[in-house]
Amino acid sequence: MLQGWGDEILRGLGMTLLVGFCALGVALVMGLLGSWAKLSRSAFARGLATLYTTVVRGVPELLMILIVYYGTPTLIQNIAEHFGHDIRVDFNPFVAGVTTIGMIYGAFATEVFRGAFLALDKGQLEAARACGMGRALAFRRIMLPQVWRFALPGLGNLWLVLIKATALISVIQLTELLRWSDIAARNTRQPFTFFFVAACLYLLITLVSQLALHRAERWANRGIRRA
């Protein structure tokens, strides 16, 4: 059915998962930093985080990828040329894709983590301070272990959207699942077959992810009495 393109489709699936997991790691780091900044007492930090989430969530994802991969190198080269330097800048498609998607969904993760931190019992933080814990120690021992319980549902939805967004990086020639499907479809002139297979594989990722997220939520809520 795949006329010898099965190996390429599987390699594309592997690349999609690799990009997704790496971008998720970037998004989690950016989300934690962004939520910390939004909850900070510093007006500058709050303003910077608000600017980040507003701009990133307001610009289409595809446009952001094109700006980073094609626009940024050109901007750097033009600035260098203005100062008398002739250089060529090329971004690696994998690095550009992971960074851009991670930054985009880091803005959404910021709001997820912010809500999760606000949902924590303030009495526990007061007890931690009464025991002599500093802010960093209380964050590491009290807040961070519990925040996942509140954040997991939102982060799960974020992952499901993020993994589909990896298809957008096919426009910067990274050979992930959609890119290989497009190449195979053009060469065999069977677009329905290969795009249908790609759709089924994305659906499979979603189903497996939902099972994993359900188990993770049960683990995070262990020992919690439900009303």
UniProtKB/TrEMBL annotation:
Q: Which SUPFAM superfamilies match?
A: MetI-like
Places the protein is found: Cell inner membrane; Cell membrane
Entry keywords, A to Z: Cell inner membrane, Cell membrane, Membrane, Transmembrane, Transmembrane helix, Transport
Which residues span the membrane? Answer: 12-37, 49-71, 91-113, 150-172, 192-213
Bilayer topology annotation = Multi-pass membrane protein
Q: Which PROSITE patterns match?
A: ABC_TM1
Q: InterPro entries per the record? A: AA_ABC_transptr_permease_3TM, ABC_transp_permease_HisMQ, MetI-like, MetI-like_sf
Pfam short name (any one): BPD_transp_1
Coarse class of the protein's main subcellular location: membrane
Which is an annotated GO molecular function term of this record? transmembrane transporter activity
One of the record's GO cellular component terms: ATP-binding cassette (ABC) transporter complex
Domain of life per record: Bacteria
Q: Where is the ABC transmembrane type-1 domain?
A: 13-213
The entry assigns this protein to a family as follows:
Belongs to the binding-protein-dependent transport system permease family. HisMQ subfamily.
- Tell me the protein's name: Amino acid ABC transporter membrane protein 1, PAAT family
